[in-house]
Amino acid sequence: MKLFTILAKHKKAVLKKWLDSIVESYPQETARFLRNKKDQFANPVGYTIEVETEHLFDLLMEGMDREKVTPYLDRIIRIRAIQDFTPSQALYFVFALKYIIRHQVAEEIDSDALEQELVDLEASIDMMALVAFEVYMACREKIYDLRAKEIQQNAYLLLRRAELIVEKPGKDRIEDNAN
After folding, report:
1. Least packed by Cβ within 10 Å: which of 51, 132, 133, 144?
2. How many CB atoms are located within 10 Å of the residue 103 CB?
3. Residue 57 to residue 62: CA distance in whole angstroms
4. What is the pLDDT of residues 101-148, one digit of tens each?
């Protein structure tokens, strides 16, 4: 595919713009930190985003394979799922890639064949976005489950402190004082 040859030539620029678009979704101070700290240990979020976007780009050039892209999406989305992003803000980075690629290669697309290749590539990015949504939802479900368990544990401890619940010796279950 000629489009992939063109994209390989522009890979570095596309990845930089993609990373910039993700970083710009953060508050200004955070974005500055993510841009300036390149160390994996001082800036694990920025490092993860940079490394995983490159893997995603490479896999996209090989052809959209759900099984292969899921772990890379997961590493980025786990970070964004626990931050103060709406679902659309958390996942926009996948769609942004379409616009970045189209802008980067616009001058070199001079035939209908290349335009069709670009449409096919964008369909693969859309599939990646659907996988990203599933990953995001799984992360959010896990967060809600953890919060629910924490609330249950806190309620139990409060009731126990208030002596509204006592544990009977030798039993594995909790009894209410009223029984």
Report:
1. 144
2. 12
3. 9
4. 999 988 887 766 788 899 999 999 999 999 999 999 999 899 888 888
Dihedral sign from CA coordinates of 10, 125, 66, 47: positive
> Which SS3 state, helix, strand or coil, does residue 80 take?
helix
Greatest CA separation for the chain: 81
Number of domains in the chain: 1
Of 74, 71, 42, the C-alpha closest to 139 is 74
Structural tokens at position 130: 């659907």
Residues ≥6 apart with Cβ < 8 Å to 104: 7, 10, 13, 14, 17
Q: 79 near 49, Cβ under 8 Å?
A: yes
Domain with 88, as residue range(s), is 2-139
**Domain assignment present for 65:** yes
Please state the separation of Cα 62 from the chain's center in Å.
Answer: 21
Q: Is residue 95 part of a domain?
A: yes
Residue in this structure with the two tokens 């659309």, named with its chain if needed: 88
Q: What residues does 176 pair with on adjacent strands?
A: 165
How big is the chain by its Cα radius of gyration, in Å? 23
Instruction: Say which residues have a Cβ less than 8 Å from residue 160's Cβ, sequence separation at least 6.
Output: 166
> What gap in Å lies between CA 48 and CA 53, rounded to an integer?
8
pTM: 0.79
Instruction: Tell me the per-residue pLDDT of 20-37, one tens digit each, with 9 for 90 and over.
Output: 999 999 999 999 999 887
